[in-house]
Amino acid sequence: MRSDLDRALELARMIPDYPEPGVLFRDLAPVLADGQALKAITTDIADRFSDAPGFDVVAGIEARGFILAGAVAVHSGCGAVSVRKAGKLPAPAASASYDLEYGSATVEVQADVQPGARVLIIDDVLATGGTALAAKQVIEAIGGEVVGVAVLCEVPELGGRQALSGLDLHIVFE
To answer: Which residues are catalytic?
Structure first.
């Protein structure tokens, strides 16, 4: 399994100065486009959180988190919900604002999670931790119980891991 994950990591591209000067963008699109790599990361995430209490729903953070959440949900036989940028949902039930390494944003979620449902949050990159914390806030606001956060990789110098202390955090490509 580890060799499949190592191969998946080799597919990632680093793009300097995107979306603005000084930011090193981790382009994971090639990883997601490769069936073997997608299967390896999906299996890794699902297996990591399969023990009790497990999860009932996967929440994917816009945009690559949607792809990962859908794949993990299918693999695990559970549902998936979207945590979207503000203004993209027809019936938002909760919203939370947060700071990014290069700005600020707001996320929203619809009330599609049953109260008490165990929710696994998934995103592609952990930077400051603000997006994941905002996702946690909106999931809890609609009655979900966040059991953990999974990401493909992190930008350690931005402190996201520390911002998520107390949460069960899994980083696929450590």
So the answer is: 64, 101
